[in-house]
Amino acid sequence: MLPTIDWTGETVVMIDQRKLPASEVYVTCRTAQDVAKAIKTMVIRGAPAIGVAAAMGLALGMRRSKASGTKQFATEFQKLCELMAATRPTAVNLFWAIDRMKQAFAEEAQRGASVAEISDRLMRESHAIHDEDVQSCRTMGAHGATLVPDTARILTHCNAGALATAGYGTALGVIRAAAEQGKRVAVLADETRPFLQGARLTAWELVKDGIDTTVITDNMAGTMMRLGDVDLVVVGADRIAANGDVANKIGTYSVAVLAREHGIPFYVAAPWSTIDLATRDGDAIPIEERTPREVTHVGNTQLAPEGARVRNPSFDVTPHKYITAIITERGVYRAPFSESLANAGPRN
Ligand code: MRU
Questions:
Q1: What does pTM read for this prediction?
Q2: Is the same domain home to 279 and 314?
Q3: Within this chain, do residues 96 and 192 fall inside the same structural domain, yes or no?
C-alpha cells in the first residue's frame, strides 16, 4: 500500500504529491502549522486524505502543547481547529475530521481527563480516522466492483486513489477491487488540468499496480466516448450535498454531461464522511478558487501572457441528475438521492 501519510511517533510524514511522479520525496511535519501548510500547498490533497491530515495535525499540535491546565489546553485546541479549517474550503471531510476531534476532546474533558489523557485520546482518534478510512475504501471498493463488468474500459478524472485517502482509494479503490477479482479492466486517466492529478498521480498509482493505464488530456474524453472506448466513468467526490449534487475536481461536470450524452454510466465513489446532509444542494457548496499561477504556468514554464485575466475554480458541481449511482462503504445509492441518502442514517 502506498504511504500517503503516517506517524513516526513524534512527527507526521507525507509523500510530497507536488513532486510525483518525478521524485518520491517525503515531507516531515513537526508542528500543526506544518501540517496546515502541507494541506494548503497540496503536499497532501484529496478529500479523505485532507481529513486524516487535519486530525493528525491536531493531535500533533496538542502533543506539543505546554499548557499547564485543561482550560489553556482547550483554548489552544480551538485555535488549531480554526487553523486547520482555514486550509481548504470544499472537501467536507476536513470539517468532518475536525468535528470528530472536537467531539473526542469534549468527551475527555467532560469526564475530567488530564491534559496528558486528552492528548492521548486525540492521538488515538486520529489513528482511528486513518484506519477507518482505509477500511471504508476497501468496503466501498467491494460494493463498487459489482458494477464493473469484465473487460471494462473505465474513465476517471483527477486522483481518487490511495494518495487521496489513507490508502486504497475511492474511485481507484473500485477499480482495484475489480482487478483483484480478476476482472480485466483498463483505465483512461484524464490528465486533470491544471494540477495534473490524473497524469501525475492516478497514472503513477495504476502503473505501479500493473493496471492497464492510458493518459488522455481532458479535452479528449468526449472523443473517446464517441469512439465507443469508454464503458463507465468512476470519480471521487469532495462533498456530496443532501440532494446528491457532487462537488469534485474541476472538469468532472463536463465528463458527467458527456457520459449522459453517450449513455455511459457515471459513478461517484466516496466515503460517508464526504456526504454532507446539512448542505441542501450543490449551489451551497463553497468552491475553492486557487492561485492563477496554476493555470498560467506548468512548473516554472509560463504559458499565458502577463496581463491576461485568469479563472481557477478548483472544483465544480455535477448536478445529481447526471449521476447513475453513489458508491459508499454503506452500499450503493441511486436516485432519488435526497431520499436514499437521508434514509441511510445519520453521519458518523
Ligand atoms: O484539489 P484536490 O487534488 O484535493 O482535489 C481532489 C479531488 O477532487 C478528488 O477527486 C476528491 O478529493 C476525491 S479523493 C478520494
A1: 0.97
A2: yes
A3: no
